[in-house]
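This is your field. Please look over both lines of this record.
***
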Amino acid sequence: MTYKELLQKVTFKEMEPYLVEHYKVNNALGWYKLHYDMLIMLEPKVSKDANGNVCKIGYYSDYEGDKHIEAWPMEGDIWEHCLTKEIVVDDCVTEPLPELAACCLWHTSFYGFTPQTHERCFDDMFCKPSDFKNYKEKFDFYADIIAKHGGKVPTLKELSICKHQELSKEAKEYLSKSKANRSKRKKRFREEFMDLYYRRLSVIAEYIAKTILWLEDLSIDHLCQLFYSEKFCTEVIRSSY
């Protein structure tokens, strides 16, 4: 049977326990239901650009030696084509159909649940800071995403006096050893000040743009208050999942 036929044989309610047990997605079940509904409505379509016409379901062992089922290749492939893939299950796999479907659903939604979230995920993956010419270009990119979601990005005039003084001090310290004349120093100061300004705003804008999809209790207006904060830093917290 094909992936589309597999999804039609089970209900999302039957898949829920396996999604929670194996993939710890308690807080994202709504997104998986949305992905499931979207796949059910999509028309299967073969594509020459897709990765194979068969999806193999078998076991793999993690670093601790525990066995899990996986569906390959599915991640990142064209969804319409995924639906046409023939599901081939290894003889040793005995899990029920809802569990196999949950495994496939997790893989097809790996880079996004809808076309919009899928596109944004790849934007985040491939539009890295090194791809931008400068901090202003990076800021403009993420500020546009924020604006499309109804958020308000502050202007330079709305920068707090305290933060303005802090950035001015940093710019002056950077130019303290410069031997340029007064006119050139003033130009260099403005350039350095704006670079520091956009560096700060681009970090905050990127954080907000990547957080919008996961909003629950916070609104976009609440997130945009970060632009006015006196202190802001990001920290990466590793997850065990």
Notes: The longest strand covers residues 54-61. The two ends are 31 Å apart (CA to CA). The first helix runs from residue 3 to 9. The beta strands are 54-61, 67-72, 86-89.
